[in-house]
Amino acid sequence: MCFKENITKYIIIAIFGIIILILIGLFIYKYYCKKNDNKNGLLSGNSEFQLEIARRKAQYKAAWRKAQLYPDWRKEEFQAVNVTLDEDTAHPSLLLSENRRRVTWQESHQNLSSSSQRFDSLSCVLGQQHISSGRSFWEVKVKDAPSWDLGICLNNVTRKGRVTVSPQNGFWAIRFYNREYWALTSPETCLTVREIPHVVGIFLDYEDGDVSFYNMTDGSHIFSFTKNTFNGALRPLFRLWSSAAGSLTICPMGEENDVVINIPE
């Protein structure tokens, strides 16, 4: 009798163990199925996002001149220019780096040779490049400069005496001064930026008469001078304001900057 009871007991325990193993197996199966479903859903979501980006890019490419978004896509229509600074144009308070890619303010004036090309009132320096056709762009690191002007100007702008930086005088530029951003129109236009730029991109379309500025930190558009008629060569323009103005550094072309593309709803 006891023997039969022991067998029955062991059979019950065995059946109970089998049930436990089946339940554990079902749990593991459902866990991996759910994990795969999530993975497939994520892949599907990424695929849809990529399709949306492709669609937006196709729309942009069809009318990129009018679009003011996505500077990294805009680059595909422009030629990168390796801008270097022209020491013959530099104001005496501006010190250029050896590679001619960085300009810094220094308090004491340098003993520089006299030159008709040199700015003596505006604390400016020009790029070496003379641009008279095509589409060009370059980028400038501004995060180390609490006040600056950036843009382009005609090669023959007035460089002696008091000069107003405006399109009427051959300058197309934006300004950061006293924690405010300005487009140097006439009169000046106060600008609102979504995020403080660490790098500014300058895009010049000579034939279309367009000069556009982008915040390369978040990919947003800052300002555009449009429908201009350029007569003669244009040159990159850089300006620092005081001994507290830090430095401006031209980004070597090919150096990747973090640009964030926000896809609007």
Q: What does this protein structure show overall?
A:
By secondary structure, the chain is an alpha+beta fold. Helix content is 25%, strand content 26%. The strands form two sheets. Strands 1, 2, 3, 5, 10, 11, 12 and 14 form an eight-stranded mixed sheet that branches. A six-stranded antiparallel sheet has the order 4-13-6-7-8-9, with no helix packed on it. The longest helix has 61 residues, at 2-62. The protein is elongated, with a radius of gyration of 31 Å.
Provide tags for this entry.
alpha+beta, 25% helix, 6-stranded antiparallel sheet, 2 helices, single chain, 265 residues, elongated, 8-stranded mixed sheet
Low-confidence stretches: 256-265
Whole-number radius of gyration? 31 Å
The fraction of residues in strands falls at: 25-35%
| Approximate shape | elongated
- What profile does the largest beta sheet have? 8 strands, mixed
- What is the helix tally? 2
The class by helix and strand makeup works out as alpha+beta
Helical amount among residues, as a percent range? 10-25%
Order of helices and strands: HHEEEEEEEEEEEEEE
What do the pLDDT scores average to?
83
Please give the number of β-strands.
14
Q: What is the terminal separation in angstroms?
A: 78 Å
